[in-house]
Design a protein that fits this description.
Blueprint lengths: L1 H11 L7 E12 L16 E11 L2 E5 L5 H5 L4 E3 L2 E4 L4 H6 L10 E3 L18 E5 H9 L17 E5 L3 E2 L6 E5 L8 E7 L3 E5 L7 H6 L9 H18 L2 E3 L4 H4 L11
Parallel strand pairs: 3-6, 6-7, 7-8, 12-13
Antiparallel strand pairs: 1-2, 1-5, 2-3, 4-5, 9-10, 10-11, 11-12
Length: 268
């Protein structure tokens, strides 16, 4: 009888839902060519790269993954010129979070695939979050000259609660949200592997690949920190995709992004 009562009690407890994934539009990069990405004009018709931000809502907290373009781009009434192209950003990520009733202080964790300006543009706004950072990414950003890193965008992290990790990291301890180390684009580049109850497993690419052609042709951008590391990371991630059955979302792929549900809608 005691066993039956215990079983009934367990059955009456609410089932803990799995994580939710929210997708935000955090800018657009318009380019004249893809030469920097080691792609010739005939290799790909792509000339626009979307810049997403992601929010993972888990029973144990919220995680922001990637911080989009800097705020000054969102504040500009006109496209912001860069060498070989321009930047556009319609609404700042904090304004988009506000639509969901969230402020920066509601974000428990922040992680960035890497610290290039188009992935860490909002980093200084989330210094009250616990920052999950590969030690080697931190060291390279603040002690070495790295292209496409604007230190002013991440300077605030020096006052943040930074939890350094070395390699893969299980964010919430249950295997549903994992940072996957894949160096080469930058020294501490990482991806995010999610296991959603309905949608299944999704792997957010960071900048392992920038376009579908990058993946198909195995092209390493000319500005990557380590070409051979990049190839090794490509091999490791392709093996992981086969092993887990996860779907790879190439973050900058606008053709994919245009098909995705955007916040406040979500994937679960």
């Amino acid at each position: 009888m005691k066993y039956v009562l215990s079983l009934l009690l367990l059955l009456s407890l609410p089932v803990q839902a799995g994580p939710k994934l929210y997708v935000f539009d955090c800018g657009l990069i318009k380019l004249e060519s893809l030469e920097l990405f080691n792609l010739k004009p005939a290799d790909s018709p792509v000339r626009e790269m979307v810049v997403p931000c992601f929010l993972v809502e888990h029973a144990k907290g919220r995680l922001l993954f990637d911080g989009g373009l800097p705020r000054h781009v969102a504040d500009s009434a006109e496209p912001v010129a860069i060498e070989g192209g321009s930047l556009v950003y319609d609404r700042w990520i904090l304004d988009q979070l506000a639509d969901m009733g969230l402020v920066a202080g509601d974000i428990d964790f922040a992680a960035y695939s890497h610290l290039h300006f188009d992935h860490a543009g909002a980093a200084n706004s989330f210094v009250d979050s616990t920052v999950l950072m590969q030690q080697r990414e931190w060291d390279a950003a603040f002690t070495q000259e790295q292209g496409f890193i604007d230190v002013s965008l991440v300077e605030g992290l020096k006052q943040a609660d930074v939890r350094f990790v070395d390699g893969d990291h299980d964010v919430f301890g249950d295997g549903t949200v994992q940072l996957i180390l894949a160096p080469g684009h930058t020294p501490g580049h990482q991806l995010l592997l999610l296991e959603l109850e309905s949608r299944g497993k999704i792997l957010l690419s960071g900048d392992l690949y920038h376009t579908q052609a990058s993946r198909k042709l195995r092209r390493v951008p000319t500005f990557n920190s380590d070409e051979q590391q990049t190839y090794a990371s490509m091999d490791r991630i392709e093996a992981l995709l086969k092993e887990t059955g996860a779907t790879l979302w190439i973050e900058h792929d606008k053709s994919l992004f245009d098909t995705l549900k955007k916040a406040p809608d979500y994937y679960d």
